[in-house]
Hints:
- The structure holds 2 protein chains of 2 kinds.
- Chain A has 2 domains: about 1-30; about 45-210, 3-Layer(aba) Sandwich (Glutaredoxin).
- By secondary structure, chain A is of the alpha+beta class.
- The longest helix of chain A has 16 residues, at about 80-95.
- In chain A, about 35% of the residues lie in helices and about 20% in strands.
- Chain B has a single domain (about 1-145), classed as Sandwich (Immunoglobulin-like).
- Chain B is about 10% helix and about 50% strand.
- Chain B has one helix at about 1-15; strands at about 25-35, 45-50, 60-65, 70-80, 85-90, 90-95, 100, 110-115, 125-130, 135-145.
- In chain B, strands 1, 2, 3, 4, 5, 6, 7, 8, 9 and 10 form a 10-stranded mixed β-sheet that branches.
- The interface between A and B is large, with 54 and 44 residues.
- Chain B: Keywords: Signal.
Amino acid sequence: MRRRALLQYGALGLGAxxxxxxxxxxxxxxxxxxxxxxxxxxxxxxxxxxxxxxxRQPVGPQTLIGRASLVFFGFTWCPQxxxxxxxxxxxxxxxxxxxxDTLDVVLITVDPERDTVEAMAEYVGYFHPQIRGWTGSxxxxxxxxxxxxxxxxxxxxxxxxxxxxxxxxxxxxxAAGALVSIIDYHEPREFALPKIRRALARSPSEAVxxxx
Amino acid sequence: xxxxxxxxxALALLTTAPPVLAGGEDVVIEDAWSxxxxxxxxxxxxxxxLQNTGAExxxxxxxxxxxxxxxxIHASTTDAQGVTRMSHxxxxxxxxxxxxxLEPGGLHVMLxxxxxxxxxxxSYALSVIFADGTEATIEVxxxxxxxxxxxx
Lengths: 212, 152
């Protein structure tokens, strides 16, 4: 079976060559590629930055201590990854119901040039009410990204516009600010919900009942 | 093994494309949907499935809609460091008998320079242009901004 299939590929000539290249790509750069990033976010307690949330409140990493939190980076001019992530998170929150009442959910922009407080407020208002939007000066966003080990860069588009390339994972911290897990962009709900429940379960009970 | 065989075969078809191409009449476009936009300054997005029912590969070379001055197909890719970026696809090939899905997280139509806001509940016409010069025009329903798919 395998032998006959190989002969068929051979007959396809160029096609088989491309298939081999594809197989090579799959091993070198594909999903099986060794993870060269040593970048896991620092504990929230080891970070230091100051931003403003979409309701004009001063916020920083210390804002997230005391409750489990879910933090991700994005920008509101993004039509694809960010609405998808926000819609997925809204879906997770709906799935958790009242269990998620003690979870802080924050989108930090990587595009402060366009994502003003007003832009963030307008945007997050379309998603689950528990989702907060944080923005700040380019310097503070760079400090936050460093703490979270997030990479981002401006990418020009035709017509003078630009988009942002950025780390798309969702970071999950417990109430003490320790990283519990990273939820990949696109992870199915059946995998995401247990991770969030684990972060919530690691929350000190006094923190859970303390704030609301 | 079988999946790899299919992938290899599809790739072989793509790379050894004969000059005869399938076009708009052979490609069935289904499950098209868009998200509502906030105003017109941010780009819009559209998703759909393109099924090539023809015996030849089909190649999408462009898009046209009155809704946006610059509609284009983008691919989202995430590298080993977890960084997601978008790249403009000049063309998208659909092997004979195969389907290509434009869906959240992967290939998608990016609607740049919106001419008017995309309002939930409304729809708009989008023409898909093929390499053989034919076009397929579909009506794309606009769902909520937090929609996750056509059945949501």
